[in-house]
Structure formats: C-alpha cells, structure tokens
Amino acid sequence: MSEATVPQTVTIPAVPRQVRVARAFVAGVLGECHPHVDVALLLASELVSNSVMHSGSAVPGGLVTVTVAAGAEGVRVEVTDRSGDGVPVLQPAAGGEAECGRGMRIMDDLAARWGYQRGGGFATTWFELA
After folding, report:
1. For domain 8-129, which architecture applies?
2. Are 14 and 64 in contact (CB under 8 A)?
3. pLDDT per residue over 52-80, tens digit each?
4. What is the 3-state secondary structure (H, E, C) of 65-126?
5. Of residues 62, 87, 94, 67, the one with CA closest to residue 78
6. Using 50, 70 and 90 to split pLDDT, how confident is the model at 91?
7. How much is the pTM?
8. Do the Cβ atoms of 18 and 52 come closer than 8 Å?
9. In whole angstroms, what is the distance from residue 66 CA to residue 88 CA?
10. Which residues make beta-bridge pairs with 76?
11. What is the Cα–Cα distance from 53 to 59, expressed in whole angstroms?
C-alpha cells in the first residue's frame, strides 16, 4: 500500500448484528463505484464474523476494530480483536452441505494477499486487494 494512504478506523461491539455496521463502514470508505468494493465487503464480513464468533473479543463488552486503507495501489482491510486460542488457517475444502469452513478458503481465493499478526493480547487479520 502507498505511504500516502490514510487508513480509516471504526471500533464496534463484537456481536453478530454489528457485522452489517462493519460492511457499511467499508462501503463508505471505498465508495459504491470502487472496483474492489464487492470483494472487500465479502471478505471484511468474513473476518468480522470470525472475530465475533471465535476471538477473545467474543465476550460481553468485547470490541473489534476495522481499518480500511484504499489507494491507487489497492485496498487493505484489517480486523483487530482480542486474541483467541486459534489462528486463521485454510481448512480442507468443505464439501456438500457444510455450513462452516469455507471463509478462509474464499479469502485465499479472492485476496491478492492475506495474513495475520498476534501480539500484546491482540490479533489482526488482514487482506489486500490489488
């Protein structure tokens, strides 16, 4: 991402109904005509959903922070939460009627790059779209 890109951030309660708030925030930062808006919304929804279900923030009063940086070189979205016990991993391809296990596979297929960082009791999972 460009050095000139200024990230924008929102912090929301770590509850499922707030995923829509995260989506609206990402859409607002990017704008409806941005070439990556649809994929960014899908992947941001996945990361925020994972945070509110699986992270250490998934407790009463827990928070999740979403950061979006968009520039000429692409888009970067980060989701920061309290570290949980696990880390994001690619599961084997989910088959049939499975309701779980597809999110990080979709992330891997659609993002130019993705990853995570842990430290100080927090975890940040991020993706970039070029």
Report:
1. 2-Layer Sandwich (3.30)
2. yes
3. 988 999 899 999 999 999 988 899 999 99
4. EEEEEEECCEEEEEEEEECCCCCCCCCCCCCCCCCCCCHHHHHHHHCCEEEEEEECCEEEEE
5. 67
6. low
7. 0.87
8. yes
9. 17
10. 69, 128
11. 9
